């Protein structure tokens, strides 16, 4: 087995060799939104049960909750004039979202976008005032300017798979993102005439998913992998459209994950995704091109945002034994500190840090993953955890479920099979269409590797996953009968025909580039659907789904449960009320984790007793 030799950044805690009880996971703080003057920070936290809005004085450290209702909040932003907070809300936890605004003291709360069957997202604010750049989506995308004070709405553009990214300060031009997953491009919109033009040449490869106007409105900066395997930052000169983009920042050893520009457009915070998924942070001066590294306060960073005056950078940091929490960075010195004064206590002292492991797929493609090992010598009962997306990535963040399984003596291997992000353009596209057979085979390759390496005991392998990972669990069980002893599929697709018929229209349209067209590729999708081969599934399976899920509809799990019941295959079917695709209530998320851990430890142990 190829295990990387560097020690985990988070020290591995000693633990007894016998199973032990596990405390509930610590709550998370995330999505910081600093006030324009940098004196206060609003953020989201699930400390009260579901994600809500809290505000904290930067120098006081005692958060105060704002009255934002009972529905979970997904995103948050403070207006540049300091008068409004904008909240993206998910009623019933469902994928359809609404945009609400309120004063920073909690008053004058009201909905301004996402009415009816439309879903609303916030791109940002125009400088100086209360105008928001908003996208509403149903069958098509709609780019809007919405006034937080009056609720007045102005439609800028409409189209399929359209997202508004930015608007110039004078409102004369807008930057749009178009296209399906992994094949997106940018368009420049002349607001007065409605004329659009594509900014980057259509090379037939790569995707551009982030962009904004430069400070003078004559350039666009974009994160793209259209010109290199690993995403980089480029500048497009709008006054010289014939000129190729200028590369501003890129690395041969890391993918540019996200860029956050300052309000004046003079500099940006760059989050880099190094091999395996650890984060690095740098600050880039867009004028001089000088970039300097800043010490990362955690292994995985996100949610970076500047205060309007540029004197404060907020972000979130997490690690294997530390939940997400908000940190403050001084851009001038690079010094960082936690927002909350009690952050030192926000640690899972019973947790273990994982090791980064390299292996090969059956066709020779390099794969990797994170291995969480129980105490004592192996082999152990082992669970393979498959992340969602598929354009997501398994990273060394805070995973209470993994720690709960390890505490019960079950090793966890969390791989990044083909289709995962963070490893370059070709890798993320390697599972498109018929390439999905390779991704399914990667799961089997991981299982075989773990047994050969002495990590897993034959007959005591389980697999678990959510969303696309839930699909991979079902696909692996029906394609490789006898390899796994049990599975847990959470919110997973079981039949591509019923998925495309039942999901949100914009989700279906964007998914065609990854999965295939439900009409043109009907035969391929039928064969890739676990329900087509469900008679091969003969091991205990737990199915978990949110009742309000309209991304992967709850019927995807229900039809598997019905088929297994008809054949007498042991299974469980847990439906969580008030949840959509992501389990946002802490109680429901903990119920899913507890059920998953109990199912795997029970059935892997039962398998061991049968074998010997």
UniProtKB/TrEMBL annotation:
Q: Where is the Peptidase S9 prolyl oligopeptidase catalytic domain?
A: 402-605
Which Pfam family, giving just one, matches this sequence?
Answer: PD40
Q: Does the keyword Hydrolase apply?
A: yes
Q: Which UniProt keywords apply?
A: Hydrolase, Protease, Serine protease
In its keyword annotation, does this UniProt entry include Hydrolase?
A: yes
Give the coiled coil ranges.
none
**Renumbered residue ranges of the record's region Disordered:** 1-37
Q: Which PANTHER family match?
A: DIPEPTIDYL PEPTIDASE FAMILY MEMBER 6 (PTHR42776:SF27), SERINE PEPTIDASE S9 FAMILY MEMBER (PTHR42776)
This chain's protein is named: S9 family peptidase
